[in-house]
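User: I'm curious whether this sequence folds into something compact or stays loose and floppy. Could you predict its structure so I can see for myself?
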Amino acid sequence: MKKAALIIQSLFYVLAGLNHFRSPGTYLGMIPPYLPIPETLNIIAGTAEILLGIGLMFPQYRKWAAYGIILMLFAFIPAHIYFIHIGSCIPGGLCVPNWVGWLRLIAIHPLLMAWAWWCRK
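Assistant: Here's the prediction. I'll summarize afterward.
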């Protein structure tokens, strides 16, 4: 079961990272305006997700990849808060009910952190 969870998590982050390049507008709309160079931040986030997802698949890098995922998810918190602040709707992009934005921040984000922690060994 743990191996399946690890593979799913790895694929999740690799695909999410690739999506930063495929649909950058979705992510750019979530970057708070007080953060500089949003295009570069999007590229860094996508690259980090891809590399950390791949890192999970290698036992010698797994622990550090998991820690990196947890730190990355902490770094994404301002974007989730901003997404809620703008009504959970990016013009021309992702639009969900506001409760979904809160669910992502309060429940899903911590679950993703816990999942990374669980898969670190």
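Summary: The helical segments are 2-22, 24-28, 38-55, 59-75, 77-85, 98-118. Residues 2-118 form one domain.
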